[in-house]
Amino acid sequence: MGLLSNRVERSEVRPGDHIYTWRAVYAYSHHGIYVGGSKVVHFTRKKEVESSDSSNFISGLISQASSECPTFPDCGFQLADSGVVLTCLDCFLGNGSLYCFEYGVPPAIFLAKFRGGTCTIAQSDPSEVVVRRAMHLLQNGFGNYDMFEKNCEDFALYCKTGLVPVDEPGIGVSGQASSAIGVPLAALLSTPFKIFAAGPLGMATVTAGMYCAGRYITDIGVRKDVAKVEVENLSSHLGFRRVEDTESVNRSSDKVKKLLPLKRKRER
């Protein structure tokens, strides 16, 4: 368990683990669920969406890598109108290092990890349940990508815990999103208290305290506005529904079944 994040070796990863890798010099991280056989299921924007943000950048990397993947013939499998994609571990990581998201951490450890999106107080469900959720969502989708309400970390957190917000959509359960909002919000909310703080160090301490408090109360393991939803019922819950054609879904399910297990083209 690292203080800032939890770097691991490939040999340590097990099916059902929530993994991630840092992008753009630690500006943000991309998350997914390791399902075994050097394969990862993760969430990004749908194929047809054009955008200039980081999620589209990830999609571009996936498309480019999957067409030239030397490891798996079906790397980059993604249904039309779905942002859930199956890739090999090599293509998921790109040139980045491998990290494992931590579950069930004590509050003191959670607060000590100043960077959001690396751990949660919530407990993980059994690994076989996690993999089943990820594979179901590969066949049925996870709705529309949203940087603050439904991103790759939200996808992985749901697969691990089955928890989703039950109130009106607002901010998702992602620790990265909470941090992105929490830093400026903490600076704003702490302004009235800065008149009592002596000097820059005191002001920084007040702001950091507000930020940590905000991260804690928005963690999925602490929030009261989340509930466990079965993956089969997720499409009708809180706007996760995607436009579906019954026949196309049936065909898609057959395609996914053929993907497991994937055969390696060569051993490294």
Automatic annotation (TrEMBL):
**What organism does the UniProt record list as the source?**
Triticum aestivum (Wheat)
| Classification lineage | Eukaryota, Viridiplantae, Streptophyta, Embryophyta, Tracheophyta
Q: Which residues form the signal peptide?
A: none
Q: Which Gene3D superfamilies match?
A: endopeptidase domain like (from Nostoc punctiforme)
Name recorded for this polypeptide: LRAT domain-containing protein
- InterPro entries given in the database record: LRAT_dom
Q: Which residues form the LRAT domain?
A: 20-168
Identify the PROSITE patterns for this entry: LRAT
Note one Pfam family from the annotation. Answer: LRAT
